Amino acid sequence: MQVRRRVWLSAATCAALMGAMAVPAVSAPSGAPTAVTPPAVGAAVDDDGVPYPRQEPLTEPPVDEDDQSNWRGAIPFHEIAPTVNEWMEDSEYVSAEVVGQSSQGRDLYLVTITAPETAEESAQQDAWREAIKHDAANAQDDAELLAGYKAPIWFNNNIHGNEWDGTDASMSYIAELVEALEAGDEEALALVEEHRLYFTLSNNPDGRVAGTRATALNLDANRDFITNTTPETRAIRDLTGDLQPVFFIDLHGYTGVLQVEPTGPPQGENYEHDLLMPYSYAAALRIEEDVVDAAIEGNPLTSAGGILIPYRDTPSGWDGWPPIFTPQYVQFQGSIAYTVELGPGRTNDLEENARRLEVNRQVGHQVIESTVAYVAENRDAILGNQMEIFRRGEAGEPLVEIPASPDPDDYAGPDEWAAEWDEADVTGTEFPRAYVIPAGSADAATLVDHLIAHGVEVGVADAAFTAGGEQYPAGTFVVDMHQPLRGLANVLLSDGSDISERVPTMYDISAWSLGRLWGAEVDRVGETTDPALDVTTTPIDAAPATGGFPEDAQYVSLVLDGVAEVQALNRLLAIGAAVVDVGDGRYVVGPEWLGAARAAAQTYGVTFTATDGSELAGDDVRGVSALRVGYTTGSSYGGEDELVLEELGFVDPVRVSVAGLTDGSVDLDEIDVLWLGAQLRFPEEDDTARDAVAEYLAAGKGVVASAQAGAALAAEFELFDVTAVNGPGRANGVVLVETAEDGVISAQAEEAAFTYGPAYFTDLGEGVTVEQTYAAEPLLSGHWLPTAEGTGGPEQAGGQPSVVSAESEDGARVLVFGTDPLFRTHPRGMFDDVAAALLWAGPEGAGIEPPAEEPTEEPTGEPTEEPTGEPTQEPTGEPTQVPTEEPTATVAPTEAPTDGTGGRLPTTGAEAWPLLLLTVLLAGGGAVLVARRRVTE
Ligand SMILES: [Zn+2]
């Protein structure tokens, strides 16, 4: 499969366009990958042939006296733009661009230091960068490229808002470099002729101002690099592909002593370590040497007189494994990438704070200077390795796996690393030949759009084909793993590995898998050395629209299996439609609301199927209602509970806390159903909150809860008997589960679930229903060992309940998850489990009249013949019509939201009210194809 997501305009074309003062924004002819996609918001540098310097002045924000940078003695956010503007006035070597906005709308700045480039020269750089990735075999021998390409080096700062000092260090370095350039320093001039130095000065300005680690969404952005719920990480993700750095550093604090981190064990299994580690480790040693030599006053060193290099100094369990961290993500661009932790941390003594900031400013400055010098001295080799990584990917060569205690002579480059590479570092994976993703569902389209946003190349099959013994229709998505970013594609889609035996504990998550956890079917096919699939594919820039709606139906049903399906259902409920749960995973809408259902199908890309309404007479039929969800939140950066509930379309969820219940600011009378992400801990001395919850439950109102919260609630109010057995708090992974038929979540649950601090249930009382169990060997990937007492491990959990439900004597319905369906907004395939549980536990809504048996009794006076359009009973059926829109007639997936979604989760249809109403009005009759564009990213 030949895939070129972008074909760069020729320099001449670019120059012509620039003459017309336009950023090239040529819309793509359908199906043809030969045009430049419109420039994505948040990726200002993706402008082919825009010359340097780029000096549109940055908008200077108002002075904020409360900026918490002041507390640290660091540069407040509002001073950054004026300083950059001054540099641009003084120097043609400084450029600045806005590459996105934070959750609260602050600009994310990219400052570039490089020698001026004409439009033609800039376009040439773009073409070379593109060739390095997509034509690496030839680029490796291109003398002009090797001589003329400006190697990109990128420093990201302040992703943790209350780790201010990297910003100050970067600005210190820039100021000094600009001064040298303006003074005509020859070394400095040579540097900017041969490199582009990029600085994202504050990746989390909201946190910088507020003094918080998290972003304003209350998520840790440096855990968000494959989910990308935060606009801050989406901006960096997009830049990563656009800048394609050869070296990347993410500056943090505070570990007491400077810490420089080439990856450590367990090493990520999808990287070309033989090409990355030699120079990565040698550069760290160079930084150490320079920092020690600089003898910066007040800078603490280790007892050995050096800095901390975890690869050398920390035997196990550091940051190498999950690609949720910025450097572990960027490294898939063939980049050497570090986290750098600046040393002295926060203190309440303000003078001491400022002193420490000054130490870190100088140390960080030195780190940047040493890194740039090291890259400059080793540019050809480091750039060559980047090209080799992309070449291996395109060629589909197996990963080179490094044995313990390798012979350094077997590898190119510096050899110091080899002595440190031991058993714990050994890693590797086998790439499949392709991933095949059946099309048609909104979940599959969301996944594909997300892959494309990461730069993964996806095609659609031009014809039906067979692969891995399965038959697939034309239009099936294919991720051919012979591609430059195959490591990234694999880390996103593969199952991952069980690493429980490799290290005693893990620092953060040990597994993730968009392939397993995002609700779409993803099939792994073949091995990387196999021939290509026996089908041609057409590359796409966005997944084709999904959704369908039957002709001439009287009743329609929707299977609630996916995020978009929940959104569509919640939209119908929000506008007052009657929707009935018929007990088999289907939700039925009657004749009065067909127009609204049709509009929802279009807005959310979901498929409704015609039905004759006979199931409305069944025993399990129950109207559902629009839910005001009250929630408690558990994890330390607990934005996930609110964000997911809002994304699912539950309107205005209310945060519930014991304090709020006690002071009366939260009224459970206004809550329809509770989601307990965290346990309600009632105080001994005041029963107000406890009484409020007791009253809520006595009224028969329901609860959906995480394990400990649910078990504690059941015990406290004697709702039913259950014991939650916890595994180790840090155990986590992708687990295999088996879901009961005809249960609350049987239509929603996938084969796999995510758990962090897994729990299973024992001692089930009478009336407690097992909704789901862990498979006999539950751990598919991750790190999960028993506790020190030998309990709570995967062996003990195997076959035990993972989800249970019960109904109290007062009629309160309760469902409890032992898994973690909302974890950091990542396991999207589990969100609908939570939605189905909330609808089940929430109050009963209006019913729908079943169809009359005799034509004369038809209440609406409509004819009562069978719906003519479609087979009526296929809950899992195909879309009733195939969307006809071309994939390219859609929004480019890399665009950041430009509307009022406020940087929330990638939402679908949050702005859709006017569209919905309009469509209701227009959707009068006749067969209407509904196919919509989802608003993503
Ligand atoms: Zn940090």
Key terms for this structure?
937 residues, disordered C terminus, nine-stranded mixed sheet, 30 strands, binds zinc ion, globular, alpha+beta
Walk me through what this model shows.
By secondary structure, this protein is of the alpha+beta class. The protein has 27 helices and 30 strands. The strands form 6 sheets. Strands 21-20-22-23-30-29-28-25-26 form a 9-stranded mixed sheet. A hairpin with a 5-residue loop joins strand 1 (94-101) and strand 2 (107-113). Helix 7 (165-182) crosses helix 14 and helix 19 runs antiparallel to helix 20 (594-604). The longest helix has 28 residues, at 350-377. The protein is globular. The model is unreliable at 1-46 and 855-937 (pLDDT under 50). Bound molecules: zinc ion. Zinc ion is lined by residues 160, 163, 222, 252. Zinc ion (ZN) binds next to loops.
Count the E strands: 30
Helix content: 25-40%
Helix segment tally: 27
Portion in strands: 15-25%
- CA radius of gyration is 28 Å
Largest sheet: 9 strands, mixed
Q: What is the end-to-end distance? A: 26 Å
Which ions, cofactors or small ligands are bound in this entry?
A: zinc ion
- Taken from the alpha-carbon principal axes, the silhouette is globular
Brief sketch in words of this structure:
The protein has 937 residues and is an alpha+beta fold. Helix 1 packs across helix 4 and helix 19 (563-574) packs antiparallel against helix 20.
